[in-house]
User: Fold this.
Amino acid sequence: MTGTGAAGRTGWVGLAVVLVAAVVAPFVFTDFFVAVILTKSLWLGIAAASLIFLSAYGGMVSLAQVGIYGVAGMAFANLVAADGGSAAAWSPWAATIVAIVLAVAVGLAFGAIAARSVGIYFLMITLAFSVLVYYFFSQVTSLGGFGGVNDVDLPGLVGRPGGDPTRLYFVTLVVAVAVFLALRYASRTPFGLALQGLRDEPDRMRALGFDVTRHRILAFGLAAFVAALAGVLSVWYNRRITPGSINLAQTIDVLIIAVIGGLYRLEGAWVGAITYALLDNYSREWTPTVGNVLGAERFNTILGIVFLVIVLASPGGLVGLWDQARDRIARRRRRPPGASVPAPAESPITTRT
Amino acid sequence: MAALVVVVAVFLVVKATEDLRQFAVVSLNGITLAALFFVVASGFTLIFGLMRVVNMAHGSLYLLGGYLALQMQESWFKQDSGLGLSLSGNGDAEYDLVGWLVPLLLAVIIIGVLGVILQQVFLRWNQGQDLRQALITIALSVIFADQMLAAFGGISKDIKTPTSWPESITLPGEVRFGFFRGVVVLGAALLIGLGLWWLIRRTRFGKIVRAGVDDRDMVSALGINVQLVFAGAFFLGAMLAGLGGVLGGTMIALAPGEDTSFLLNSLIVVIIGGMGSLGGAAIGALALGLVDAYADVYLVFGDTDLTNYSILVTFGLLVGVLAVRPHGLFGRPA
Amino acid sequence: MALFGAVVALGLAGCGGSDDDKGGGGGGSTKTQSDSGGGSGGGGTIKVGFLSDCEGAFGSFFEPTASGFNQALIDKAGAKPAGKKPTDGVTGATVGGKKIEIVGYGCADDTADKAIEETRRLMEQEDADVLVGPLSGDEGIAVANYAKEHPDKTFINGIAGAQDSTLKVRAPNFFRYHPDGAQWSAGLGDYAYNDLGWKKAAIIGDDYSFPYTSLAGFVAEYCAIGGNITKRIWAPLGEKDYSSFISQIPDDVDGIYVGIGGSGLINFVKQYRQQKGELDTKRMMGNVFWDDPLVLKEVGSSLVGGTTAAMTAGDSTDPEVKAYLGRLEESYGKELAGLGPSVFTYGYYTAGQALVKGLEEVGGDVSDQKKLQDALANLTLAGDEAPYGDVKLDENHQAISNIFVKKIVKDANGDGVPDVQTFRRIPDVDQTFGGFFSPDSPAVDRNNPKCEKSDQPPPWVGKAEKVSYGG
Assistant:
């Protein structure tokens, strides 16, 4: 699905199968599962997709995505009626639009500063941005401060609190599918193709007359838009946002989701997100207790180990593992080479500076 | 840019004349904070300069160094009921100089060895894949943070200074300042700065490191055992993180979250100063420390108290430097 | 492992898949297996979740808060401690023939996020009927808002003292049986202005909801009778390095009110002494933390001479107080019983007392939580249920109770820890300060309430009762 997009019909069939399953899910699972596992993975996946888009097509691993979604979420929470923050009591839809515009503007500004750097510098600068956003919102008390914004007013579309969680689930599902299709489409436009050219051969593209930095900034803006959607959805999901929702731990969690899923395939975002959500909720039950070192409380250790193993074993994440497995099966059946989906020439995870 | 610097300088002069004593104390706060930042960031930048490894577990080594020293100090002197009924984790116990110095030395050496182990196990075989190395060290920092929480608890603790040391010193003009902070930490940072300068400029190790920063491939082509130098650099860099942890744990406190906060400080210091440059780390640390201290105090205009926007000043510093010099003040393109 | 192996395989079944959602399912995740609705379910068990802090600035209060809550069950519900540590739980707690089960001792870290995460785990995954907690200001506001969204569950505050959680949020199923942070400061403004003669004062505190509340109580009273606040200094919560903020304390004020809590206070005292020599306690007052037994143990000698106030009196010789401390010692030993006068232990103790009393009134039936909530709203704690003074609730479910004003004095009983000397009792302190605070008044924050003289000072000004336990 990247670049060459050779999957063709099987890809669409796969998407349709997953979609049908997703639509049926709320009628099978409990409300708790639909909300805490499925809905949460959908919006976390959108956040991770913005990271993966930049990394897969632009060769930029950005840790600023949580900062940007924090700007969107905090802006939304402050603009509607709420407990805490500036509680401007706008209509939730107007607030949604303004929050997204604001987050994209901040994203473009971040991009303008960071896009001149590449590789590891880019990662460090974007990490600093994200953490500065966290400090900003935890210290500026008129925007909620340390306690954040509670009891946020939401659009009628997503239903009452404590009510049926399936409405928010379907809203999030629609956004997630739209984001997936739009980003995939974007990667095939001339803009997207040029971006991939910049990723692989920046000097040659520069020689061809491309404005490399501007292209990168625009890509960053597009990813900021996607991250902003995730930010607003996260507030719709939690009905509240505090600086703790956008701290460094969350930044790293979204990175972990992207890496677990696979840094060079968009669908990896949601694979990573659901893996994360399931681990988060159910690892407590099967984690053996080993003194102080392992146990129900040590979720972050489990997560760190899964992350470490994936980085060590499969730079392409779970999606990469799947591709490898399928390649092997394909080879065993002596299919002609090229029938499988080729991975990008160089995965971003091994990019050298 | 220059105009902005002038405006800030004039503003500070005006504030200084309003209350000179306060200005002196705030400046000392900033400088001593910078000293601590420098100790930690110098290790970070050293490792990067030579090996192009961004060690995201640097903050974990900082915090672990502090906790190890604390653990050693406590286990010799203190009894505990196991209920965790202590706000600082360390009651009124008294310690002599040995009770501070020995834990410091041992903790620093242990952290240095740990650094080498991490490098040999996780980073040696994938040299050059800097992004992958960063991700590996992020994973390690997640595991470290959780394990430290399990082992040392979530409560803020501090390492006690020797009882024989004075609490504070008085400078001319009745400026009172903490002894440990003003003398020990500042002195340690100066010694380390000079020591590193000597090491880099005057020793064979330093020559190899400098050559390695300029051209790694050439150095290995010359038949020098680069792996040994790399291990040595990692040992030194990790040791500095551990030392920072002991100093910081005594000067301020040890708590979950201090690991990431010092990783971030190191990042900002080297982004400002330039990756791989020791002089840059010193300038970057000074800039960050002073900006932090001044912004906490002087962002008050009449009745409008903007001190809680101080993070924007730090952000402005970062953006300002990057806008003019994308690789930091003393940095070079990789 | 099998679970998410299956999940991942399914997720990847279509290689172009855009999202998740798996058929595998997990224990309890499908609709047929369990109903996620509230209620006590079968077996007649009342499920209670406990929420406090084991990390962050107040992490040291984890066991003390648990000891207070457990002690109420031991006193009134026939429970026995299950272990030496209070968080080991209790056994055999029953009320009205129904078993009380503590589904977990939740551990937060004074951030709202962690508190909500733990609340969700206790209330949704463990399916508790009642939550007792949390500990700290912002957590309290978040949990009160959570309560509003879950009317079919009941919430009794632990010791979180932010004013907003009852005054502004006003969730019908959230109850607080202890005074809030502002009430805890009652009597101090009067004492500062009229007895100590402070004309100008500064305040310093951590930058979040509890110190706002705590300092607001002082400002409201002190300014109403003529005092003037010339400087307000706020340090971000979690700040470990207070030196920049200490250097901002003006020299030309008559007094300072310090609203820094938990482990921050230890750092503050340490750094203040480094920067200014000794703590000038003659011109200092502190909020509820100053005479907390844990704080006294560690930096008490620096605090001698300071004035503070709260709902407990460490030196009380009242027989009901002595009995309470004796029972606590019997259950959990001397060290934890020594923390009995801490508001943290005592706040959770009264919460537990209210819970048992409320449950008794509905015969242990939590299938209709509305009944339990009505019972809780109307009950009064008295006698051995509230040894430091009777508690009743106002219409916002907020306690009205008495407050003690105290001084920290040199150690006289020979334990090496400074003592507390209570000298005033302020009766019937209510949350509104006689109407000054209301749901419509600006929320307390960095700049509010404003410092203004008023012809309607809090009703208790000048009406404090003299108290002396020392003999």
Notes: Strands of chain B lie at 168-171, 175-178, 300-301, 304-305.
